[in-house]
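Write out this protein's structure.
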Amino acid sequence: MRHATASSGGGRDHDRPLTSRGHDEARRVGLSIRSRGPIPERVLCSSALRCRETWQGLSASIDSTATVDFEDALYNASPESLLHCLAGVVDEQSVLILAHNPGVSMLALELARGDEKSVARLRAGFAPAAIACFEIDGPWSLLSPSSARLTRFERAPKE
């Protein structure tokens, strides 16, 4: 998932908060996850304020009991770094990685490689609060490009 809409204001990029629209997007994505699943058992979240605030709004909507790791390494991470973080997951079946573009959208494209219909859907744009859900066979440690199936891709739902 890409974080929700953040302010464009000055100061340190890492400290940019969500806008009121972003808070609403996070809440609506949480409601969608609550109704459609999957509910994450573990969350790997960038330590950037906008990602932490996105998780806060999302988790309030799903009443999450997930284990959450706020990772500095996910801040503006490359697709390879994101994949490496996912490969370290051991026990959980459902994992949410909450980070930044272009890394998130590029990772999604890599995971969907070989499925032209899914790739075309992802190329349509990974807006703030967009979420791509994939299924994988086997352990997270074997996750690699083309090893996952896109099951859902959506922007923040409208109310």
